[in-house]
Amino acid sequence: MKSIFLIGFMGSGKTSVSKALANILHINVIDTDELLEKTYETTISDIFAEKGEDVFRKYETSILKQAPTANTIVSTGGGIVEREENIDWLINNGSVVYLETGWETIVTRLKEDTTRPIWNNAGRDKQKLLEERDLKYKRTADVIVQTDGKSPDMIASEILGVLNL
Ligand SMILES: Nc1ncnc2c1ncn2[C@@H]1O[C@H](COP(=O)(O)OP(=O)(O)O)[C@@H](O)[C@H]1O
Ligand SMILES: O=C(O)C1=C[C@@H](OP(=O)(O)O)[C@@H](O)[C@H](O)C1
Ligand SMILES: [Mg+2]
Questions:
Q1: Domain boundaries, the chain
Q2: Nearest atom in ligand 2 to 9's CA
Q3: 29: helix, coil or strand?
Q4: Distance separating alpha carbons of residues 99 and 159, to the nearest angstrom
């Protein structure tokens, strides 16, 4: 089985749904953000604060390209589509699922969040970022699943129903 890569905006549920999928399929799950923090022995917040977004994106690309391309569920970071080379790599190496999520749902889910530097950057227009990235997620994905009003388990079952595994 080709590995399944979950893409989508911050708060679309990539990390949560990846765990639900791995539980159902009994296969390994990795999260590019968690692996990045382990590999570079730091936190995402610290990388953004000390080195900036460009360095984070370089690390993220390197982690993505080391991901197993078979028998694994991979949860990516919301900005994985910011680099064209990541989009190409995903299209060529995985079954890619876009967790499409409305703005209001994202705002509700991330109300309490303090761990996402871009979400917590008051100077950035996150709603516009969602609109821009939405086109890139759609260009990259093999299948699109809507997440509004559904639990991670429901979304995982729906993904398995639409993917040809
Ligand atoms: N389908 C869902 N329904 C309700 N809450 C969700 C759902 N998916 C994720 N969440 C919650 O939203 C927040 C962000 O989820 P997370 O899985 O980390 O998203 P992502 O990895 O896409 O940023 C977490 O608090 C999580 O518990
Ligand atoms: O959208 C983004 O640019 C980011 C999303 C985060 O992952 P999640 O999508 O899992 O929140 C994380 O990679 C980092 O904070 C940057
Ligand atoms: Mg995540």
A1: 4-157
A2: 9
A3: strand
A4: 9
Instruction: Pick the residue whose CA is nearest to atom 19 on ligand 1.
Output: 13
CATH class of 4-157: alpha beta
**How is residue 59 written in tokens?**
């690390």
Has this prediction a pTM greater than 0.95? yes
CA separation for the pair 17, 117 (Å, rounded): 22
Burial label for 154, CB within 10 Å (0-12, 13-18, 19+), is middle
- Cα end-to-end span (Å), the chain: 6
pLDDT digits (tens, 9 = 90+) for 28-79: 999 999 999 999 999 999 999 999 999 999 999 999 999 999 999 999 999 9
Distance of CA 13 from the midpoint of ligand 3 (Å): 7
One-letter amino acid for residue 116 of the chain: R
Mean pLDDT of all residues belonging to the chain: 97
Ligand 1 nearest-atom number relative to CA 75: 21
State the DSSP H helix or E strand holding residue 125, giving kind and residue range, or none if neither.
Answer: none
Q: Is the ipTM of this complex over 0.90?
A: yes
Contact 124/10 with Cβ under 8 angstroms? no
Q: Which residue has the tokens 């209001």?
A: 104
114 in a known ligand binding site? no
Measured from the alpha carbon of residue 79, the closest ligand is 2
CA 125–ligand 2 middle distance (angstroms) = 15
